[in-house]
Amino acid sequence: MKRTNKPNIILILTDDQGYWSLGCSGNREIRTPNIDRLAEGGVRLENFFCTSPVCSPARASLLTGRIPSQHGVLDWIRKGHGEVHGDAPVDYLEGITGYTDLLAANGYTCGISGKWHLGATGYPQKSYEHWFVTLGGSGTYRDAMVYKGREKVQTKGYLTDVITDDALSFIEECCSRDDGKPFYLNLTYTAPHSPHVDQHKQEYVDYYYENATFADVPQAPRHAGSIANPHDMAYSLTFASKEREYLTLRDLLSGYYAAVQGIDDNVGRVVQKLEELGIRENTLIIYTSDNGFNCGQHGIWGKGNATMPLNLYDTSVKVPCIFNYPGHMKEGKVYDELLSAYDIMPTLLEIAGIENPEAGSLPGRSFLSLLEEGKTEDYHESITVFDEYGPNRMIRTKEWKYIRRYPYGQDELYDLAHDPQEQFNLLAENRYFHYGPGFIEEKTVELKKMLEEWFAKYTDMAHDGRVEPVMGRGQLCKVGPEAEGRLTFSPAVDVEYRR
Question: How much is the pTM?
């Protein structure tokens, strides 16, 4: 492979991984030595947020730099994969530029290995030359079906390993060429998404089941808004051994931890391959997740759609994020600037030296100067990040979080400086005397004004999440006028499982 002045880029994207589930972020029992080494040799971002606490909108925002109310993917995609009878493929991001389009147009060979979950799974999109993707959003970890290009293929083995096998083949193929082109790899694991039981490497499951205290996963009483049968518990039971009559918390936690350790093993394989090929120093590795996950925190098992109204707790919207680029970025640094997934696109493009003609209409800002020089500047208005999930929107500063619920539910206000675990909603709790007369009302007005001005600036009214009946049960088609009068989101029903 001829050397290029542009770096190779590998973005490792996990599925449903809480920021708390790595050794480098303080978890004392989970075993993640390879990921921890990436953090030790790079930059770990302690306050990095997804744009929506569920997979498809979060992934669409990561790829396009747009908020959900700009690109129109507002919930996890239930229909449009083209995988079931009568389920026609839907290209949910049709006509929207992804950063892979810009990378490809500027000389990068782009490949994806793993989860896509943005519709029309059976054919390559967004300028990916290499296309090896799972059929839907999740499923079995054993002998899974995938699309390789346009061909449906039956794989053998543990899915996290299989995805990595394909990724390593893509890297080797790119290195065998003599065209001098850098590569971009989107390595998108389904782990640690449910199912969590009877799916992962047994020796890892047994280790955690027998030895872990899970003290780093504080359990709270069941959340008042928790849905009757949490999605991810029901899904785990669907794929569990038929001999099981029920699942225990220890079963679920052991499986979740084992899934993360399985990812860590494969991160080690990727780094080893880069070293063997002599391209490690010319390859940027980014490690992050699509959204967070609650393993009992707040009395929830799941992410944003584990409750009704849909929740935006930090455990649902905050994700791990590590940048490692030897000799080019800071090493062993941890920064607490508030950053968001919509900042990834401009940062990657600046690293690659590529301009985006649409940058002015997008909310993200590059944070490359932080990674390279440690410049701790404010990247957003009042060091603020924003999130949304359907008709629920959030503004978060380092000290405060305000959640605005439009047609239903109670608004929420949290004093993060004194209540970092978000236990007390100051708009529901009788705690006004802590702050003095009128303070809570004034703070709410201040944050609400900032939130509504920001979303008004970036929202495409044809895709406005405030007016869509998003219930966390899945998106069925495109929204707005493109729905052509059809039902756009699955209604709220009890979560089903099959044995």
Answer: 0.96
Q: What is the mean pLDDT of each run of 10 residues along the chain (499 residues)?
A: 77 98 98 98 97 98 98 97 84 98 98 97 97 94 97 97 98 92 98 97 98 96 90 91 92 98 98 98 98 97 95 98 97 95 97 96 95 76 83 96 89 95 88 78 95 97 96 95 95 66
- Token pair 């940027």: residue: 284
Domains observed in the chain: 8-373 (3.40.720.10), 385-483 (3.30.1120.10)
Pairing outcome for strands 333-335 and 339-340: unpaired
